[in-house]
Amino acid sequence: MLEVILKGHDKFYGVSDVVRMICGVPEELKDEGKVIVPEGPDIRLVNELLEYGRSVTYSEDKEYEFKGELLEPGREIKRSLYMALSDITSKSMPWGCLTGIRPTLVACEEEDAKALEEKYFVRPDKAVLAYETSREEQRILSLVPEESICIYVGIPFCPSRCEYCSFVSSDISHHMDRLVNYEAALEREIKTVASHINRPVAAIYVGGGTPTVLEEKEFSSLLDCIYSNIRITPECEVTVEAGRPDTITSGKLISMRDHGITRICINPQTMRTDTLLRLGRRHTAEDTVRVYQEATGMGFDLINMDLIAGLPYENAKDHVESTKKLIELAPANITVHTLYKKRRASISREQVMDLEKSRGELDMCVAESYELLKQAGYHPYYMYRQKDTGHGLENTGFAKDGTGNLYNVAMMSDCRDVLSFGAGGMSKRCFKQEGELYKHRVERCSTIKDALTYIERVDEMAEKKISFFSM
Length: 471
What we know:
- The protein is α/β, with parallel strands linked by helices and 471 residues long.
- It has helices at residues 12-23, 73-89, 103-107, 114-120, 124-141, 176-194, 216-229, 250-259, 273-279, 285-297, 316-329, 349-352, 361-375, 406-413, 451-456, 458-470, and strands at 2-7, 27-29, 34-37, 43-49, 55-58, 63-65, 149-155, 201-208, 237-243, 263-266, 302-309, 333-338, 378-384, 395-400, 417-421, 426-432, 440-446.
- α5 (124-141) packs across α14 and α11 runs parallel beside α13 (361-375).
């Protein structure tokens, strides 16, 4: 069993993050001042923060301390602990001791990629990725005025549940009455809150789940509500995550086009039909191509397509082949996600994680996909990480010709306010910190996750957001 004693600090969260990515799921024993991992290496470590701010991690016979530039305490304790665990287990992670969801935020603080390697042990290819992406994120963020607001409209339903997902509990086709009632409640919330928001809207994102799971009538009605109640200028970016090809009809595409929406997402996740069907998705790779061609034929020239690396039932070569097929279609954006363990997904953590290899198949296939995308004229424009992701990798959005999604960048930055409608949505306000260029103080306002409870209490949720944004 691995046992990490905290001394001179109480940063359990940071310690747990490091041990999780290298050794397994941690248990925080705060009363005893330690973090344990039952399946970890059999060793006892002390992770100490010294009075002058340096951190040292030591066992009975060895001590680990970084001798270079001093970092803030939270990063210091993670760095020395990473040094120890990496040495003890002979494992190095692609992102070194960086455990946060936004490595580009750290990259913004540095003058070059090399600093990420030297200070945080980030692997050279990931250091370059973070540095390049951070610069493009900042360029895109500059296009979103600080006084503006971004809006998210959430439809937390899908036509079926994928094996890797924990988002919905059952096939929505058995509960279509809930979907109709949910859409009506969503309209009610938008109408109630929108009139109280007197700020320019920079970007709107209709996401899910799968928004196009709505029938054509309800789908068109929702778009009518959005465009009737929210002041949408020609400069406002409006994205609809059409998502699953099996939910996208000609009528829904026409409705989006007629409302003026030009940016949509068509997300195959893989271009291998056998994988799709085994995962529980109800469409083929051919369906993806057909819908994509229909959309482009209607004039949609800003289309994002998602892929997931590390899916069950396929190998590295299959993912690379999917990347090649999307490149042939040439959408404006391609986003490469790495499979991660969602809390209630049926897939196990052991299936997702790659703790035994220093550079496994998943790692190499993601690197190859990135290289193919760059050769095809795509460039990384935003990136984030999630816990329990295969081999500690990341999710990266690529775009051609500077077409990156404003909403994605603004939302991930925690530098722009977001008003979120719908069950499970998280609204937030971001406040500048004195002397901080990239870090903001963030206040959040959550919405009930359960869709049925949201329907019953939608007026309460609306008033909560009115109050939150009037403070």
